[in-house]
Design goal:
two-stranded antiparallel sheet
Amino acid sequence: MIAEFLNQTVTLMELVTVSGNRKAMQTTQTALAQIQNVDTREARVLEGIASKTYMAWFEENTVIHEGMIIRNHLDNRRYKVIGVEHQGANLGLEAEHIEVTMVKYNL
């Protein structure tokens, strides 16, 4: 089961409309994850800032989509979700999970 490998508590946040044209980040849920660095060097440029690519794994019932911000409680780092894949979904596999591709968010 993937739950055995999820060792970091994270907060999932997304941009919501507060009133009129005003928007703010709002926490949608807290979840357990496994986060790993997949780049050995800073290669990506996102919003004019060089950053590294990371992968995260979540349980299949986690609600997550592109554009969300993930905050790791351990080191308070923030990551922006750039890809979401549901692995093994509806195939009856024991290892059903969500793989998330993300970059370090520097704001």
